[in-house]
Here is the input.
Amino acid sequence: MGNISNRYINALKKRYESQVAEAEANIALYLSGKNLAAIGEHSDLMEEQDKWIGKLAEAKDKLETLLSLNLEDPDMVKSINS
Here is the structure.
């Protein structure tokens, strides 16, 4: 696989890992019961928590999908790039 393809794959992996980390940090803040002043501007905490859980699920799903691709298979790389 070409160097450019590897860079894109690594960039996507880092993007999804970053999104997972961000969502986990926000969920931990909301569910900890501590530092409530930091989240005081959100009047609908349930909606905000639901939003971050959705973002976490989506990022994990994307990361899992990326990692499950057989990117060493030249046919797979062709289908991804087309």
In short: The radius of gyration is 17 Å. The chain has one domain: 3-81.
